[in-house]
Amino acid sequence: MKINCVIVNYNDADTAICLVKRIHGFESLAGIVVVDNASADDSWERLKALEDEKVAVIRGDRNGGYGYGNNLGVRYAIGTNQATHVIIANPDVEFAERVILAMSRIFKSHPDVGAVAPVMEDMQYGGLGRGWPLRGFAGELLAMGPISRRLFKRALNYPESHYRGKKAVYADAVHGSMLMVDGGAFLECGGYDEHIFLYQEESVLAWRMRTNGYRTVVLLTETYIHRHGTTISKACKGQQIRQRLRHESLMYYMKNYLYINKLEELIARVWFQGIFAEIRAAAKAEKLIESIKKMKP
């Protein structure tokens, strides 16, 4: 196996540079490919200074989003660096070299596996991210709503028995903040859908992997830290903007992968408006609570 790591940057060179320096000495990594998604700041110049015999820095011709940048990096890793397997990692993650070694062992023993991910430790929302089953129309809508995804958490995810007493399990979808893919399988599946700028990429890759006969594994014995939103919040400022982007990506996914009809599309758009109302109400409540706190002696 020849393993590369792909890191996509947009206007956040500090975070990307920290990750490159943290993993540069990993002997299991044959190369690191940093993709700058046409940043509007000085990221390109700063990242180019990282280049050496192990690090390559390439630039996209536009800010095409998560899928575009990672597809560009994976193709470079495979085509130029002759990598067989590629780690796709957000700049705002932390992981040890043992995680890479553990993931690589899964590929060696299971030739039908196209992707492997460790358990995500989410530093913003808490909890552990261990993957989820591909959902239908109703499931995707429920998973989008801040309240509904909590109320229907059990129905939207694998039961706890799916993980109990196991070192690794199959899952449909895994978190995209860090995973390792088989390079050949990734390209055969078409990689990420570049019509999606951000969000919903995990479901697309899961759908494409499963459709092409590849399985995805969650490695329960290893974890990585994800400082959730560190990079995204810099690229897309404002909760309303990010939520609108989520809705657009989910609508595209439902139309092109779940093949929803016109009535279902109408239901989804009404549901999205309800989520926006929910977010606005929560924001007002938060401001009211802060005002009351300030009034107290």
Write the CATH homologous superfamily. Spore Coat Polysaccharide Biosynthesis Protein SpsA, Chain A
First-residue to last-residue Cα separation: 64 Å
| Gyration radius from CA atoms, angstroms | 20 Å
Tally of helical runs: 12
What would you call the shape? globular
Helix content: 40-55%
Whole-number count of domains: 1
Query: At the third CATH level, what is the topology name?
Result: Spore Coat Polysaccharide Biosynthesis Protein SpsA, Chain A
| Proportion of beta-strand residues | 15-25%
CATH class: Alpha Beta
Could you state the order of secondary-structure elements as H and E?
EHEHEHEEHEEHHHEEHHEHHH
Show unreliable segments: none
Largest sheet geometry: 10 strands, mixed
Average the pLDDT over all residues and give the rounded result: 92
| Known CATH architecture | Alpha-Beta Complex
- Beta strands, count: 10
Helix-strand category: alpha/beta
